[in-house]
Design goal:
heterodimer; A: 454 residues; alpha/beta; Rossmann fold; six-stranded mixed sheet; three-stranded antiparallel sheet; 14 strands; extended; B: 540 residues; alpha+beta; four-stranded mixed sheet; 11 strands; 53% helix; globular
Chain lengths: 454, 540
């Protein structure tokens, strides 16, 4: 907390408007902590199922209803192709990537996404009203009328739509690794492919090696392969047979049996991408902004993994007034919001990591930052200077503002970015995408990615 | 998918003997298969019917996360399918005693399928065979019409919850009760009572005349009777014909699919006749599953009632009571929050049996108010067993709850309505006891039952189709409206309107003013128009 205090003192000295002070106080009053929920405890605390959720096969016979769903993924391409065809036929697309479920702890190449289809019909809406009062359900046990019999922590998706860390959906999920999702995103949603820009950023280079095999002639005889070939030929001729000892004098060797290695061109991956995902987890990010940012970052990660043929390293940074690096996507994705906001702290940490580990030399560096656009330092002096430093070595910096307010293009972060003219000076390096978090659906989020990376 | 081994089959046959002796009625022939997880993945999107038609959406995971399911309850599939012979599916390697328990559960399901009247229309044919024929028809069409077939399936499925399950059933019942020919029925019914507005006397005279005439009930007498009517009312035949034409549509008032099949301009064009067979297949499949979802709780309750009853009396597996109890409790325990069909159905059957045994399902019992007298009431009739068989035959979930859930039942099992609300201070979702009154509990049960929206419809000017949603307290799920109507426009071949009721957020905000906690729902009627695949909405 002392660091927060320091920051406030510093900002006070610089001069704070009433409005800023109000925002700061609101965030300070936010009662929460940065805990990542335990992977297993994240589901439904109270088993609230209704009649049609029970099935003999699952509840009575205890059959595993979810095994082997990976097996179905192979059909995905076909399905997506069909979906594209729908577009041509003048019908809306049906396959959605929308529902993404918590990433798995410890593995940062694994994201779970469920391609989903809804069979739309005219149904009664049984959702909740704004106070979270849904339709009543049944129960049994003791307790007077009005008595609270149980509670569960609010999930980020409570109240609306797709969610970061949507708990129970996990068991319905289909595991798809980031590479596949990236491919789908690229093809299905027509995200751009990375353009080759001169030699430095090209993805591949070629080396020459004795790898190709050639029958009849070549540079070096491949003895093992040749021997195999000779045996095959002689089996066919009948000079060798399984049950008799081999008489080497009868063995015939034809010129075609000789197998040589020849010099050939090989693809080699030259450049690798290093991606920093930076997310604001301050108090004001509660709910939809967090969800939008986390979702977009999952998609971006997948896209890069595909573009760089898995040659992608990722680093995850969270910040409130203080920045912290976290080990995996799970933690990054799930840590809850709390605390105040200082964007500069995160940018400074990225710069520090890049400098200390001398990363700029070996990698194409990407930085994606997601925020709701609040910054206690409304002028952003520090943040801007760190940003400029960052621009000097990055291939691309994408800043997403998922604003909680409806006037989404008027956030502090956007204001100081526009003022600084950095966006105009480095159109190839720095991109900004602002949206109103509450209205941002899957389409909008993917649209945003295009803007950030094109 | 493999048939169970001979040893296990013998166990099943033993179960059948004991179940039949206890009064359950089912066909002798059954087929049991063991299935692997992979089989289950293939089978579950097809509602366990291996021969169901192929449809690409089945290949992808249809998301059914928590909460989501409530918005669009699908057909609950069982591990027992209602075919001839009945087929049931099991996992491998169950110990014998567990198989005994499961077999009894399955046999009770079979008994329910084959005796509950809501399944009547599935009794005369083998759905699995019909499905296979349908599957072949669709496969053949797909070879000719390519992906068009899938569009038709998709759009047909998008209205397959709007089939007249109850109205078709009602017609069958009516026809059975009166063995009049349609003309005579029309004469005594609509013609005399509505068109001619005949007085009671005249009506009774005519009834008498008919009865006298039909003492020798053969066709000639009826003809003679009708001839006499024609003499007096020369317009009779004409009116009858007209009525017949109207009647064709009448029973389908709630069967949107049937209406589309009969009246759609597109489907009835010569080159599109094939679409009709596809829509027909989807409709019949939906009707086949309709009773299942409407008897879910009864069916599971009935099966749980019998698997417990028969297992504990089975001499073959003595010594496994503890293991049985553990599994049984896992399935049939009442949940603290949530509605478990095994638990509630089973308890309600037991309760009904007890009530009937003590003669409490009677007027005599109902007029007693004093608690101690009610508790002591016992006529020792012991008719309970017969009575629950009667219930199994004639009730569905709605009537089951509506008739038998009362305050005694709710008190006995400490049942309650659980409400939920968000506690912003604690950042939690709270579950609280909302009510322990039987009336509220019943209402809550009804709210949780499968209930497709009540929509009537008619053809309007310029070949448009006008749907009228009768509001029952819940608005339609708005996100799904555009695509559903688009599909309907495709099948209908003209503009589609939907009149429905929605929350008027604007008016609510205005009315509530600053008091955010006092938002009262305000509804208004709106009209959706789907024209050329574009949707528009306007207020009335």
């Amino acid at each position: 907390m002392s660091k927060t205090k320091e920051l406030i003192d510093y900002l006070r000295r610089q001069g704070l408007s009433k409005e800023q002070m109000k925002l700061i106080n609101e965030e300070l009053a936010h009662n929460g902590s940065h805990e990542a929920p335990d992977e297993f405890s994240q589901g439904i605390y109270l088993e609230n199922r209704t009649f049609y959720d029970f099935l003999d096969s699952r509840d009575f016979l205890r059959m595993n209803m979810n095994a082997g769903q990976q097996a179905r993924l192979h059909a995905l391409d076909k399905l997506l192709e069909r979906d594209k065809q729908r577009d041509k036929d003048g019908f809306p697309r049906k396959v959605k990537l929308g529902k993404l479920v918590k990433p798995i702890k410890g593995g940062n190449d694994k994201t779970i996404i469920i391609p989903t289809i809804t069979e739309e019909k005219l149904y009664h809406w049984k959702g909740e009203n704004s106070q979270g009062q849904g339709q009543g359900t049944g129960g049994s046990g003791d307790g007077e009328e009005g008595e609270v019999i149980g509670e569960e922590p609010l999930r980020p998706d409570d109240g609306a739509g797709q969610g970061a860390g949507q708990g129970k959906g996990g068991q319905h999920g289909m595991g798809a690794d980031a590479y596949d999702i990236g491919r789908i995103l690229t093809e299905q949603f027509e995200l751009p492919n990375i353009k080759e820009k001169g030699k430095k950023t090209s993805l591949t280079r070629f080396t020459y090696d004795m790898t190709d095999k050639n029958r009849g002639q070549g540079q070096i005889l491949d003895k093992k392969a040749t021997l195999k070939r000779v045996i095959k030929t002689n089996l066919a001729l009948g000079t060798i047979s399984g049950d008799k000892p081999v008489d080497s004098s009868k063995i015939l060797i034809t010129p075609g049996d000789r197998i040589y290695r020849t010099l050939s061109r090989e693809k080699d991956y030259e450049s690798q991408a290093l991606v920093f995902f930076v997310r604001d987890y301050s108090g004001s990010m509660t709910g939809k902004p967090t969800e939008v940012v986390a979702t977009q970052h999952i998609y971006i990660n997948s896209w890069l993994v595909y573009q760089y043929q898995r040659q992608v390293k990722t680093r995850f940074i969270l910040h409130d007034t203080d920045a912290e690096e976290v080990p995996d996507f799970y933690t990054y994705f799930n840590k809850q919001v709390a605390g105040g906001t200082d964007v500069a702290s995160a940018f400074a940490l990225v710069n520090k990591i890049v400098e200390e580990e001398n990363l700029a030399k070996d990698y194409n560096i990407y930085v994606f930052h997601g925020t709701d656009g609040d910054d206690w330092d409304a002028r952003g002096n520090k943040a801007l200077s760190e940003l400029e430093k960052m621009i000097s070595y990055s291939s691309r910096i994408g800043i997403t503002i998922a604003a909680g307010i409806s006037d989404y293009s008027n956030t502090f972060v956007e204001q100081y970015l526009r003022k600084s003219k950095l966006l105009e000076s480095y159109p190839d390096k720095l991109r900004l995408d602002s949206m109103k978090a509450a209205d941002a659906g899957e389409e909008r989020i993917i649209q945003g990615i295009k803007l950030l990376i094109e | 998918m493999k048939l169970i081994d001979q040893h296990t089959k013998r166990i099943m046959e033993g179960c059948k003997e004991r179940a039949a002796a206890a009064g359950l009625k089912f066909d002798k022939e059954t087929l049991e298969y063991t299935v692997s997880n992979t089989d289950m993945i293939e089978l579950s999107p097809k509602n366990m019917i291996p021969t169901l038609y192929d449809y690409w959406v089945q290949d992808i995971q249809v998301l059914r996360g928590k909460g989501e399911y409530e918005y669009y309850p699908n057909n609950p599939y069982e591990t027992v399918i209602n075919t001839r012979p009945v087929i049931s599916f099991y996992n491998n390697n169950n110990p014998d005693w567990l198989n005994v328990m499961i077999f009894y559960h399955v046999l009770a399901h079979i008994d329910f399928f084959q005796n509950n009247k809501f399944f009547q229309h599935t009794w005369d044919y083998d759905f699995k065979e019909k499905a296979l024929t349908d599957k072949r028809i669709i496969a053949r069409l797909r070879a000719q019409k390519k992906r068009q077939v899938d569009y038709v399936i998709e759009f047909a499925r998008s209205i397959d919850n709007l089939v007249g399950f109850h109205s078709s059933y009602q017609d069958e019942e009516e026809n059975k009760q009166f063995s009049f020919t349609e003309k005579v029925e029309f004469y005594f019914g609509r013609f005399m009572q509505e068109i001619k507005n005949a007085g009671m006397n005249e009506f009774l005279e005519e009834v008498e005349r008919y009865n006298k005439d039909s003492e020798l009930p053969d066709q000639e007498h009826e003809e003679r009777f009708l001839a006499s009517i024609r003499l007096r009312h020369p317009e009779f035949d004409n009116l009858f014909e007209k009525e017949q034409k109207k009647k064709k549509i009448r029973p389908e008032e709630q069967d949107l699919m049937q209406f589309v099949l009969q009246e759609s301009g597109i489907l009835n064009q010569e080159e599109n006749k094939w679409m009709k067979s596809v829509v027909e297949i989807v409709r019949e499949t939906s009707l086949y599953f309709a009773p299942m979802i409407r008897t879910k709780t009864m069916n599971e309750g009935w099966a749980s009632f019998w698997h417990e009853n028969l297992f504990l009396n089975d001499d073959r597996i003595k010594g496994h009571e503890v293991a049985f109890a553990k599994i049984n409790a896992g399935v049939t325990a009442l949940s603290k929050v949530g509605l478990n069909p095994y638990a509630i159905g089973w308890r309600l059957f037991m309760y009904v049996e007890e009530m009937a045994n003590k003669g409490r399902l009677s007027y005599d019992f109902r007029r007693i108010n004093a608690l101690n007298e009610r508790k002591a009431f016992d006529s020792k009739q012991m008719k309970g067993r017969d009575f629950i068989f009667h219930v199994r035959e004639n009730y569905c979930d709605f009537t089951f709850f509506n008739t038998f859930v009362d305050q005694d039942f709710v008190d006995k099992h400490k049942l309650m309505v659980v409400g939920q609300r968000i506690n912003r201070q604690r950042n939690t979702r709270e579950y609280y006891v909302k009510s322990r009154k039987a009336r509220d509990y019943k209402e809550m049960l009804f709210d949780n039952l499968y209930h497709p929206p009540y929509i009537t419809f008619q053809r309007k000017y310029e070949n448009s189709l006008y749907l009228n949603h009768h509001f029952e307290g819940q608005e339609l799920y708005r996100e799904y409206i555009p695509n559903t109507l688009m599909g309907l426009e495709y099948l209908w071949g003209g503009t589609v309107f939907l009149e429905t009721t929605e929350l008027d957020q604007e008016a609510m905000r205005k009315a509530a003013g600053r008091d955010e906690n006092n938002v009262q729902p305000i509804f208004h009627r709106v009209l959706y128009t789907m024209k050329n695949r574009k949707i528009t909405k306007e207020n009335f």
